[in-house]
């Protein structure tokens, strides 16, 4: 059974999904990709329920949207291919208020695999299917030229999230 709960943010409603007591999904309403499970949220596989992991996630989101760097991570379970998980693990290492390019991530993956090159497009596809927005910070990935590219929740949200983190400012909030 997959359980869901909702969170109202300044950037729109977020859906939280959990299974086995772990957060497995967090996405903005109407974003490009949602939880990749058979059926729709109205199907019986989904049930609305209050769970401790939803309380943890809501607290994380409260801190984040108030401009603070949450110093903890809710209990997450990332489900995907080995390649996707490798990319998402790198995303988890991008510090609050900082960015990394798709190419930089592709270079890290290539080194990990012991190969000469990795496609930044393949990395972008894995990032685009990140099931846990914000907490697995795919919004911190930008183009090699420093421009905002791709975000399943919409580029306007990506810009707002980076602004919220104080990206590019010397007075970033570290609370």
TrEMBL record:
Keywords: Cytoplasm, DNA damage, DNA repair, Methyltransferase, Transferase. It catalyses: a 4-O-methyl-thymidine in DNA + L-cysteinyl-[protein] = a thymidine in DNA + S-methyl-L-cysteinyl-[protein]; a 6-O-methyl-2'-deoxyguanosine in DNA + L-cysteinyl-[protein] = S-methyl-L-cysteinyl-[protein] + a 2'-deoxyguanosine in DNA. InterPro entries: MethylDNA_cys_MeTrfase_AS (IPR001497), MethylDNA_cys_MeTrfase_DNA-bd (IPR014048), MethylDNA_cys_MeTrfase_DNAb (IPR036217), MethylG_MeTrfase_N (IPR008332), MGMT (IPR023546), MGMT_N_sf (IPR036631), WH-like_DNA-bd_sf (IPR036388). Residues 2-72 form the Methylguanine DNA methyltransferase ribonuclease-like domain. Its EC number is 2.1.1.63. The active site is at residue 138. It is an enzyme of class 2 (transferase). Its main location: cytoplasm. Pfam families: DNA_binding_1, Methyltransf_1N. One of its GO terms (molecular function) is methylated-DNA-[protein]-cysteine S-methyltransferase activity. Residues 82-166 form the Methylated-DNA-[protein]-cysteine S-methyltransferase DNA binding domain. GO terms for cellular component: cytoplasm. It is found in: Cytoplasm. GO terms for biological process: DNA alkylation repair; methylation. Belongs to the MGMT family. This enzyme catalyzes only one turnover and therefore is not strictly catalytic. According to one definition, an enzyme is a biocatalyst that acts repeatedly and over many reaction cycles. Involved in the cellular defense against the biological effects of O6-methylguanine (O6-MeG) and O4-methylthymine (O4-MeT) in DNA. Repairs the methylated nucleobase in DNA by stoichiometrically transferring the methyl group to a cysteine residue in the enzyme. This is a suicide reaction: the enzyme is irreversibly inactivated. This is Methylated-DNA--protein-cysteine methyltransferase.
């Amino acid at each position: 059974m997959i359980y869901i709960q909702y969170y109202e943010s300044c950037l729109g409603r977020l859906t939280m999904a959990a299974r086995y007591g772990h957060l497995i999904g967090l996405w903005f309403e109407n974003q490009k990709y949602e939880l990749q499970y058979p059926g729709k949220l109205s199907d019986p596989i989904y049930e609305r329920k209050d769970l401790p992991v939803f309380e943890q996630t809501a607290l994380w989101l409260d801190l984040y949207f108030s401009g603070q760097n949450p110093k903890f991570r809710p209990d997450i379970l990332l489900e995907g291919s080995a390649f996707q998980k490798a990319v998402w693990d790198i995303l988890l290492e991008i510090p609050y208020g900082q960015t990394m390019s798709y190419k930089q991530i592709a270079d890290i993956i290539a080194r990990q695999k012991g190969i000469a090159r990795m496609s930044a497009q393949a990395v972008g596809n894995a990032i685009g299917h990140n099931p846990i927005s914000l907490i697995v910070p795919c919004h911190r990935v930008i183009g090699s030229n420093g421009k905002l590219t791709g975000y399943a929740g919409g580029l306007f949200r990506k810009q707002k999230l980076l602004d919220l983190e104080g990206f590019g400012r010397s007075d970033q909030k570290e609370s």
